[in-house]
Amino acid sequence: MKPFDPQRAEPGRYPRLQAALDTVNRDFAATLPDQPPLALMVWDEQVYVAVSDGSWHHEGLQEPDDDASDDDALGLVADAAQETVADRLRRAWPVCPSHGTGTHVRPEGTAVDWEGWGEGESERLVWWCGGGAAGDCHDLAAVGELAAALTRP
After folding, report:
1. Which residue in 135, 139, 111 sits closest to 125, CA to CA?
2. Given phi > 0 = left and psi -120 to 50 = alpha, else beta, which region is 138?
3. Sorting pLDDT into bands at 50, 70 and 90, what band is 131?
């Protein structure tokens, strides 16, 4: 049995996952400025998005194939970051300031009855809010651009 000894990812080893994490970390810093940035950890040939103590809570990731889009990597990393933050920091993240509810990564412009990832959807990924009791769902901001959305009047 392999000992549990996760290590920080070597710089340059997972370029697409790291680029996606850099994007997600812009939103993390904008919403949780007192927290150190999220990091990539590696254990047993899998990559994980971890909080500052090196812990995570999601299934392992692998560097996307060459034919996958950068948004594929961004979606994987953003989902993994949300799972880790929810479990390790015990909070929904990111939260819509208008509704006080957690948001989710979705293609831009999806409706409340969206059924999951499919062909022909927008390539741009956003933090999507399901809205309040009235169900007034909306795109909060593109992933990586949350700071601008939080400072709008």
Report:
1. 139
2. beta
3. confident
